[in-house]
Amino acid sequence: MIEKDLYSKIYLANNTIVEMLIDRGYNPTRTTYDTIEDFGLEFRNVLTEPRSLNFVSKKDQLTTAVYFSLEEKIPKSTLEGIVQNNINDGCNNLIIIMQNKLNHACVSYLNSVRANIFVEGFLFNELLFNPTKHELVPHHKIMNQLEITELLKKHSCTLENLPKILSTDIITRYLGAKVNDVISIQRQSKTAKTSIYYRVVKNS
Fold first, then answer.
1. Neighbours of 87 (CB within 10 A)
2. For the sheet containing 93-98, what is the strand order?
3. Could you say which of 3.30.70.100, 3.90.45.10, 3.40.1340.10, 3.40.50.10540 is the CATH number of the domain covering 1-129?
4. Which parts of the sequence belong to the RNA polymerase subunit H/Rpb5 C-terminal domain (predicted)?
5. Longest dimension (CA), the chain
């Protein structure tokens, strides 16, 4: 039963991560699957051969690697190997999908290599569905630098004057937003009027 549950989570996480990369502007080498049976035709043995799940996507000059870990806990030594291999392969970003949160030593290590590679971690349980498809979640978009400059000029303010959205927010993480990125949030009211709000990404 445990293996069946994990297999189902892998299937759902694969679909969400592919949709996430598409929403970030990538052209993933992986696809989504309509049913778990379709997924099984290609990934029947993922529980014993998890490396077959890993893939790389490119966007302009950026390369993002996706790594699925089926270990209960990722040891620091294993994490170091995963990260270093992807640095050596020329990856700019690395998304690790795992069963449980990283320990303090692993988090500290990732902070130490941030200048070389940007690493994001998601739990399988966080990727069981695409959070942006929920009917109560408004449209979120990371603004480019020109849009930010025009926004601040229009309102005669600085980034520090904008309301915050936390970097730990699931939508912020889904978009791949970094600290000091600005996100526009488009809400549709019951009267069909559209309102746009702005949030700057902060750690706390």
1. 15
2. 55-59, 62-68, 93-98, 118-123
3. 3.40.1340.10
4. 129-201
5. 58
pLDDT tens for each residue of 17-35: 999 999 999 999 999 999 9
Tokens of 183: 């996100």
Which segments of the chain belong to CATH 3.90.940.20?
132-202
Q: What is the pLDDT of residues 120-168, one digit of tens each?
A: 999 999 999 999 998 889 999 999 999 999 999 999 999 999 999 999 9
